[in-house]
Amino acid sequence: MAVADGISLLDALREELDCRSVKDGCSPQGQCGCCTVWVDGAPRVSCVTPVRRVAGRSVTTLEGLGADRCDRWAAAFVAHGASQCGFCTPGIVVRLAALEGAGNGRTPTRADVEAALRAHLCRCTGWQSIADAACDVLEAPEGPGSRRSDGRADPLPAAWRAELEGATFQSSGPGVVLGGGSFADDTAPAGTPVQLGADAPLAPSVRAARAGGGRVQGRNSTVPLSHPLEPPAGEWALTLRTTWVEPAYVEPDASWSPPGGPPASPLANGGAFGGKRHSPVPGRALELADAAGEAVRVLWRREDVVRNGPKRPPLALALRPDGSGTVRIGRTAGSADLGPALARLEAWCPGVEAEVVDVVGPRVAPDLRGAVWAEVLAAQAALRSAPDPTGSAEADVSVPGGGRARVVAAFDGGGRGRVAVDVWAGAALSEVTLRSYALGAVHQALGLVWSEGIAVDDAGVPVDLTIRSFGILAARDMPDVTVRVHEGTGWPVNGSDAVFVATLAAAWAAEGRPDRWPTRRAAVRAPLRDVARSDEREELP
Ligand code: FES
Ligand code: FES
To answer: Which pLDDT score is estimated for 531?
Structure first.
């Protein structure tokens, strides 16, 4: 089929050929892997591949892998809980499927799988379940072993467990793995005019919008992180300063609406860790559709998400030996009311006084995952967990709502270390799903302590605009994580928030509680520069 020249392979596939299994998580940054396809049988990120470069060559999307192969990969991902929101998953499956038969008679190893995952980002799953699923399909010698799943997850209890963990509806199943999560931008009718970017004019197509707006390549800045708040003066048992942190959901904000609505939800299959709860895109789509008298699509680029989306607020925390103390919370112009965060703090962390301090920076939100209260509870738990000279620490945390987790973090024995999680969340409903969310919580908590944050300039504007610059931990950065789910007889409750808090505490205590997060940013970010293999990057015209 003929497609327009002068565009990326991604735009040719999604916009001109209506192939919606190929996702756009960061185009044209080439850093998330969501748009991966095969060109002549080799994986390539299609957002940085000019369509003219594939003329006369074979392009294979997920659909081209064939029904049997797709079914095998989807079944393994479901069985291991390796897909949550499902936005990153089709690209990951396409890349991992290329390992089948790629070893010239050698069976791929777990190291091969982790190397292949370098070109991808998943914010939800914590990687391990993905590697386990891949090793099952590939029959890798270092497969999941004792972590082998307990079979195909039953979709209804799995969806209930997912909703408890994500605080919003989330379906699971083979269709989600294969890209059918009903994401807003995938359901927009073909040919719908689009606003591409937060302040862009309406354009008849993505192609026209990109041409009109010029190509805005993302940047990795070298600007250091700032920690804008100081803890109060005094004798404290513990102090901690944090910075702005991007929630980093992989599906950018998107919606579309017919005149009169209703607009499509940007939360089709997951809660984006609270980051899209007040996204302006549905309202904008409705407004534009009413004005235009026809359906309109609104799609943010990655840079728009960074510039306009909410951040985790910077904090300065100081605690006495008994866990009482003060937390200063950074509030910026345009931020949501911090009242809910303060109310949670008062109810859940008695003895800790809150002070709101106005600072210059991107807008912050109180409803991002555990914002403020998680850091405070983690610091209190870390106070109870004596720093261990061997580099190992344990934290046992119960959170409001009923979940409990015990986490042992050990990073002393060389290699990548180990994290052992025990979680109690009432009736498990789906052990596979609860484990998946626990793994995701460990990944996010380690990222918060070790590597995540975004730099801002003197005017408070974010300058870390690429998805790789947020400091999200890659598969190879993760320790070996084991999760033991304790089946309860009580009503099911959220378990991953307790895992999140306990991991924050144990990981921080294991490092001796340095007074700033993140603690290892340079070490994690440096190797990421080569993340998309050079042979996959070609300049767009
Ligand atoms: S959309 Fe192509 S790598 Fe992210
Ligand atoms: S499942 Fe990977 S980003 Fe959501």
So the answer is: 46
